[in-house]
Write a structure and sequence with these properties.
The structure is a single chain. By secondary structure, this protein is an all-alpha fold. It has 2 domains: 213 residues, no CATH class; 76 residues, no CATH class. The chain is 71% helix and 2% strand. The protein contains 12 helices and 2 strands, in the order H-H-H-H-E-H-H-H-E-H-H-H-H-H. A two-stranded parallel ribbon has the order 1-2. Helix 2 runs antiparallel to helix 5, helix 7 packs antiparallel against helix 8 and helix 11 runs antiparallel to helix 12. The radius of gyration is 23 Å and the shape is flat.
Amino acid sequence: MQYFLFTFVRYTRKMKKHRSEIPKGGEEMTFWEHLDELRGTLWRIIIVLIVTSIVLFSFKDVLFDDILLAPKSKDFITYRLLCRLGDLLSMPSLCIDPSAFQLININLAGQFTSHMNISLVAGLIISLPYIIWELWRFVKPGLTPAEIRGSRGAVTIVSLLFLTGVSFSYFVVAPLMINFLGGYLVSSSVANQIALTSYVSTLTLMTLLMGLLFELPVLILFLTRMGIVNPGFLRKYRKHAAILILVLAGIITPSPDVFSQLLVATPLYLLFEVSVSVSARIHKRQREPAG
């Protein structure tokens, strides 16, 4: 966000009207003209998001039965793969059944609001590449030629990282979390009847958070360019990062099963190592003599 604001300020100061919008005198765009262009960008993003969400709203059966409620079924692909792995490793505990709880609706408008929320979140996920492209199109004129060359493929990389995080959450984190929390009992006298709104909010929040967490390499790239972090700093605290990732994996998957925690922690640690590598490359380029 700081990098975006910094670029916007430079954008408003330096960028001239381009192509057909350039006046004869070569005058720079005013702050209000830039603000108006930002407003147009935001309106296009909002319109695409709303239209996508409305289209998805009409596919209720697909959104709920085939996607949202799928991790609750023992036929979900993750459970089937874990069960096969358990057979190979002689670990029957990996063959799990997540159907130990029942979803209920306790609010009059609960199912309708859940339908709207899921449509909006799904619309956001699908529209994300376009949203990032619009933001990139807005800030690009405020960048130097060197920065533009160094940012080639940024839209694709940011989109892929987010979608990878969303997929990782949906196929790995969510099933493990649902299996543990949905089947956890403090007493056999207390049955688990989970509110639909609670299930929806937990699953969507975790999915979006994991999508943002997978943007770590991009964040490290910007912080390295701004001189806030460097590869030496990241390597120095590599062990601390590993411990933090294990703790985070334990929070995400509160199951006492070590295998489940490692299943979550391993990709997160690899993501950290990718971030270190990205920081090292950027730092090396910055120290190379110009020309």
